[in-house]
Amino acid sequence: MVLNSFRLDNKVALITGGSYGIGFAIARGLYEAGAKIAFNDINQELVDKGLKSYKEAGIPVRGYVCDVTDEEQVQELVRKIENDLGVIDILVNNAGIIKRIPMVEMKVEDFEKVIDVDLIAPFIVSKAVIPGMIKKGSGKIINICSMMSELGRETVSAYAAAKGGLKMLTRNIASEYGSHNIQCNGIGPGYIETPQTAPLRVKGNPFNDFIISKTPAERWGRTDDLIGPAVFLASSASDFVNGHILYVDGGILAYIGKQPN
Ligand code: NAP
Ligand code: GCO
Q1: What are the residues facing 185 on neighbouring strands?
Q2: Helical pair 21-32 and 44-56, crossing angle rounded to 10 deg
Q3: Ligand 2, from 106, 167, 197: best to mutate by most atoms within 8 Å of Cβ?
């Protein structure tokens, strides 16, 4: 029964930065497919916010405070989850930040901070989780990439460098650990309605119309648009998919943009 291959029963999933937004939606989808859910966020306030949201959605979760850029905190996080729920089967490297600053005006420390969270942290968390997956004989890693894994634009140099690097880290983990039955893939969301893009969607911001003109679907993405792709890449249905970046972008990457009337 092909649909059974999309089930995640008895699997343990960690979604980093999962208090809200894309991470929260993906966690909800993995739960509905049968997984046990753990999430972390950078401080107790955000974890509490997430726990409240998950409770309101009727989703039992474990929430942990952990800064994913801190290797000691990440190793402690993995130990706690293994103790509370079991070995992590599915890792979603979702935590991320963006700083929109023209490159020549950007401080080095700002550039470094984005690289730390969006590229080095997925390395740190994957490095902590893979040994358990090797022992178990299977594992799924899903890195949340971006349109900026493929495209550049003004003011997002650090973010594009990080997300481009995350695409290649995804391919390298796939290459290095595929023989252990670990599949590492990426999801590249288009422009999605979350707090991170709220400044771009304010009424009258020309960027809002620009994105609509660049998206064949003629709409911003919704976090729910990412759930099916995430369940697919977390499940045995994708056991022979490895090193792939699945763009969930309404067609942006395929489209030159709406032609002038
Ligand atoms: P977001 O605001 O980027 O959410 C990311 C989450 O990660 C937040 O809860 C954030 O906490 C947390 N976080 C940040 N730094 C962290 C750290 N050092 N340790 C632990 N947690 C940390 O919202 P989003 O739009 O849902 O983005 C989720 C992911 O999708 C990100 O990787 C983003 O780059 C990517 N993405 C987003 C879009 C989009 O259009 N929204 C499109 C493509 C890709 P804070 O609230 O404190 O920042
Ligand atoms: C931006 C946006 C994008 C989205 C996303 C697109 O400022 O261009 O924040 O980067 O967050 O990454 O896929």
Answers
A1: 142
A2: 40
A3: 197
Q: Whose structure tokens read 């943009």?
A: 257
Mutate to test the pocket of ligand 2, among 97, 150, 156 (most ligand atoms within 8 A of CB): 156
Residue 189, token pair as written in the block: 């969301």
Catalytic amino acids? 159
Distance 237 CA to ligand 2 centre (A): 29
Secondary structure class of 150 (helix, strand, coil): coil
Q: Where are the domains of the chain?
A: 3-193+222-249
What are the pLDDT digits (tens) for 90-118? 999 999 999 999 999 999 999 999 999 99
Ligand 2, atom 10, residue with closest C-alpha: 148
pLDDT in tens, 111-155: 999 999 999 999 999 999 999 999 999 999 999 999 999 999 999
Q: Where are the alpha helices (DSSP H) in the chain?
A: 21-32, 44-56, 71-84, 108-115, 121-136, 157-177, 206-214, 227-234
CATH hierarchy code of domain 3-193+222-249: 3.40.50.720
Pull the structure tokens for residue 197.
Answer: 């893009």
What is the whole-number distance in angstroms between the Cα of residue 67 and the centre of ligand 1?
A: 12
Contact status, residue 13 vs residue 88, Cβ threshold 8 Å = yes
**What is the side-by-side strand order in the sheet with 61-65?**
61-65, 36-41, 12-16, 90-93, 139-144, 182-189, 245-248
- Give this prediction's pTM: 0.98
